[in-house]
Amino acid sequence: MALDWQASQGRALRGDVRVPGDKSISHRAVMLAAIADGTSRISGFLEGEDTRATAAILQRLGVRIEAPSAGERIVHGVGLRGLRGSDDALDCGNAGTGMRLLCGLLAGQGFDSVLVGDASLSRRPMARVIDPLARMGASIEAVEGGFPPLRIHAKNKLQAIDFRSPVASAQVKSAVLLAGLYAEGTTRVRETQPTRDYTESMLAAFGWPIRHVPGEASLEGGHRLHATDIVVPGDFSSAAFLLVAASIVPGSDLLLRGVGINPRRTGLLAALRAMGADIREESPRRLGGEPAADLRVRSARLSGITLPAMLAPDMIDEFPALFVAAAFAEGATVVSGAAELRVKESDRIAGMSAGLRAMGVRVDETPDGATIHGLGADGRLRAAEVDSLGDHRLAMAFAVAAQCADGEVRIADCANVATSFPGFTRLANEIGMGLRDG
Description:
alpha/beta, 12 helices
């Protein structure tokens, strides 16, 4: 169903809020709980369409999952070999993480499966996952070019591999490690650049022996997962939009409670601080085995930077938010090493560049990034019509940018925001943003 937004200048952003649970952790928690021995309780589970799609697929595969309240899941694990095949296609919706991780989970099962997704997901490349899984002995068919739907054929036994990933992708790494649970021997994944280690930490929490250091992880098949209780921290990718909004709207002072700050996820935090943002970590603690903290952000004058290449893999989902921060920085911000943005839910480089240009910002695209020529802290965007391309992160980024616009910004195709940040419009208005459906 089509949904457009009307966004315009609100007031200084104030409040003490919580963002939804981390999407990446929610996916992994419910998957591992499903194939563990015993009953696990997940608190802080993201009530988004993506994570609900993953839970619904596991239910179709024979796992009993209860939802006693919002953000709570009780998962009655069926053990490593307890999943049952489904005659129906398994619908991942818009969840690229769900589809790629499920490829690894289902690659070694004794039944066939078909994974499908919506129009956006059906345009996302899956060969990067299919290829290493095929080397392990999996049989996966895709549309020409490696696109969904994916047909995964029964395979009772996989062989471990030593895999060097050509792309910096936690999803690829995770798919191989999940397949490694069903493989003979030691599965090892090496990365050219370290990516987020949610899967490694979650496997350890469920009791599977795993060795991992930044850039490398290995595990042996033949063990069992044991039920555990998981507390999911707030999603840093969701917090990113509010961090940028409060940084660029004068007079803002916002507190975000219990946000996950895994160092493999918080490249944007380092980038914003390098630009001069006033963001402080308070009450550091661990939630679900992950580092977390309350983040207090106050408005600040930002300066353009050349983004260090080493930060790119740690902020791949946060680049739309960075583009907006860069639009209000003094001077140019140069982004490179982000070619992965071309194959996310949309071509995020092209989409953000087009939208910001429509609002009056000069953006020079490159194959793997862009140079954003900032307007400065006192700059104003112009009213415009922009297209989110059905990408939840572009929609939220444009809504944030519109808080510093002279006039109304119409943002097309925003329904997919519900995949990652249900209730975004309500929370945005509570803290002072001007945003409504329309």
